[in-house]
Protein 1
Amino acid sequence: MLVYLNGDYLPLDEARVSVLDRGFLFGDGVYEVIPVYSRRPFRLHEHLVRLQASLDAIRLANPHSEAEWIERIERVSTAAEWPDQGIYLQVTRGPGPRDHAFPQVIQPTVFIMPMPLATPAPALVEQGVCAITAPDDRWLHCDVKSVSLLANVLARQRSVDAGCAETILLRDGWLTEGSTSNVFIVRDGVILAPPKSNLILPGITYDVVLELARTLELPHQLRPIAADELKRADEVWLTSTPKEVLAVTRLDGVPVGDGRPGPVFRRVHAAYQDYKRRVMHGA
Ligand code: PMP
């Protein structure tokens, strides 16, 4: 397995960064996880656009053009043993004296690594997963895909401790997203999700799901969702690159709807798989 680090392609265990790297000292960096299905990157342009938005938000110049990113990602992806991958890509503000202020001279650290992409097993799709809710105590720039993930890490661990797949976050009584995913609900046949804002990550899968809802002519609406609506939803779904679309069938120990993945989920999940297949075949 080859990784890319600052201009070199090398084995993972030979990749080294400075302990003065601001990613290590301050979490001063951003990242992306790009799915590759049967060695074809999925929504690569959209991921690179989001990367640019994250870099802009933290005032770090993009070290590469889109063509350069694509070339590097393809080289790492081609060398990886698995046909389905999550390409992890990270840019930090690089090494410098330990000072919160930006260094005078910035040498960003660029790291690209392939990971096996573990999409949900069919049994999990059939049964759904459990989730818990917790207060969203993150900062107010959750639209930035920052490597400063401590609040997400702690939130995710709460669901691990509870034996569940995800922690769904509520800010001041309103649904934001999961610790590592976006959240959709269905009420009375209408798909609902919080609109994009500084309080959620603009998920690439979130966009795909909304496009599919449009194509399938399923009623859908982006609007704030109160905690109470989440708790009384007929269906709750998680979306993310590795989870794709996954039904939550128990929330805080209580069955969601009849406790099985719902009919709207089934339609959207099937459409998502169809769409993926078309991408894999080069459509
Ligand atoms: N929200 C958060 C907090 C996430 O970490 C992720 C996964 N990166 C998502 C949403 C989903 O984003 P995507 O669909 O682009 O994987």
Protein 2
Amino acid sequence: MKNITVIGSGTMGNGIAHVFAQHGYSVSLVDIAEEALKRALKTIAGNMDRQVAKSIITEDDKVNALNRIQTYTILADGVKDADLVIEAASENLNVKLNIFKELDALCKPNCILASNTSSISITKIASVTKRGDKVIGMHFMNPVPMMKLVEVICGYMTSDEVTNAIKALSIKIGKIPTEVNDYPGFISNRILIPMINEAIYSLYEGVAGVDEIDTVMRLGMAHPMGPLQLADFIGLDVVLSILNVLHDGFKNPKYAPCPLLVNMVTSNNLGKKTGSGFYKYTDGSKELRVADYFKKKSSAPIFASAMSL
Ligand code: NAI
């Protein structure tokens, strides 16, 4: 595999393009928005500057890697030579199904089609193509240049040959592939997202405040950040949508989203990206401040006070 096409040049797409270009692959980056492509190239160059400053790569490596990236707004142009396409477009079922239908028609017959989806079934995505054996999940973690894991998700029809090729390729770009089967949430989000939901339930029921919950998990479990802060980073809308995938997929009430999470998403308190979630984010400040509404409520357990009405 020499020519890699990445579809979607947002947070994940630009990171995936960065890593492949850094490791000598020729990369075609495709997005429907010209602006997103410009932003992606700027982000990649900025991130590579940081790698140069830390002596991870040289200035020459950076220039060569950037020269290996071509950008396209027309899918057919961006995929014509692809040996592997990695789709990292928005997390929306119809968007992904349409992209894969088109890819199946446009790509070389032996081209492998991968998705970086964090929650949509690979088997479902593969079902709109005539090459189910060549459709696979390549779930990179954010930020892609720094995180080692690639969760390799085998759909119901994915062949062993394709799985092995993707695992070998992941190693070539400095990652550690881990193979899992295609069931809701795969492994990463099946375990992470219910843990976050449980942290939100603990807050909702007044067991502890935001700071206390995150401190227990950071200092007691050696997590680099607490589950509520992590939820703010991921985006509470994303957390809710993955919980809904787990709930719908398993039909098990243990995955029911906490009503507090639903309220926060409905009121657009989505975490870091909207400036407030469990914490408040002010421009330029590195200090984490618990959002005011939780400061008031954490001293009076929400659930207990509701019970006493
Ligand atoms: P994003 O919103 O930052 O970027 C998505 C990009 O896709 C946008 O630039 C948009 O213009 C483009 N796009 C939308 N429809 C398109 C189409 N039909 N053709 C080409 N480009 C199209 O999204 P992000 O966060 O990069 O997520 C991408 C995928 O990666 C999603 O499936 C998400 O679930 C998954 N993911 C996200 C992680 C994260 O931490 N953000 C972590 C792991 C996976």
